[in-house]
Design brief:
The protein is of the alpha+beta class. The protein has 5 helices and 6 strands. The chain has a single domain, classed as Roll (Nuclear Transport Factor 2, Chain: A).
């Protein structure tokens, strides 16, 4: 789910805002003594997602198709309730980033944080992403998928502006499928996509 350079800037800005808020909270908490009940409270339970469309979560094929579809479109708002409905409560998203010094890092965020980043970008920019190839492994109720993606600014663009791999982890609870995690890395000259993850020639 590669975004453009603008989206990268938004991610850094968003991360900085979160870090600043956390630092301020920590400073305030040190100034105020905590009671026993405050220090022993369990972590908050993630909120339940909106109800999903049955067709979006009926199979691994369906939930991947819905994930790509919901973020794709011309400039404008996306159906973020549909987006949230695909994710297991507590799910994470992450992307590999390359710093100016060439160092690599992985930035992790929640689906809601992705919404905050993506909403500002998608409102002003067309973005279409499709799956070009897939490698999947399944055991019982869990599936892991390497989904090769192609990103375009317009659905009619002959070539993508970015390619990479979305690594999905899915869970089936007996009734529906959930996205547990999406971790992606964009293709670069230093890290081209291997042949086994490219579309098969016909």
């Amino acid at each position: 789910m590669s975004l453009s350079k603008l989206a990268t800037i938004l991610i850094f800005s968003f991360t900085f805002t979160i870090a600043s808020a956390k630092a301020q909270d920590q400073t305030q908490s040190k100034a105020q003594p905590q009671t026993q009940s405050e220090t022993s409270q369990a972590p908050a339970t993630p909120p339940a997602p909106p109800p999903a469309k049955p067709g979006d979560v009926a199979s691994p094929d369906a939930i991947l198709a819905a994930t790509y579809d919901v973020i794709s479109g011309p400039p404008g708002r996306r159906d973020w309730d549909r987006f949230r409905s695909l994710f297991l409560p507590g799910a994470r998203m992450a992307s590999v980033r390359k710093g100016k010094d060439g160092s690599l890092s992985a930035r992790s965020f929640t689906p809601d944080e992705y919404v905050a980043i993506g909403d500002a970008y998608f409102t002003k920019n067309g973005f279409f992403e499709r799956e070009a190839s897939r490698h999947a492994d399944r055991y019982a109720n869990i599936v892991q998928i390497f989904s090769t993606y192609e990103s375009r600014h317009d659905i009619k663009d002959p070539t993508p502006f970015a390619r990479g791999i979305n690594s999905f982890q899915l869970f089936f609870d007996g009734k529906r499928w959930w996205v547990v995690d999406i971790f992606w890395q964009e293709e670069t000259p230093e890290a081209p996509l291997p042949e086994e993850f490219l579309p098969k020639a016909h």
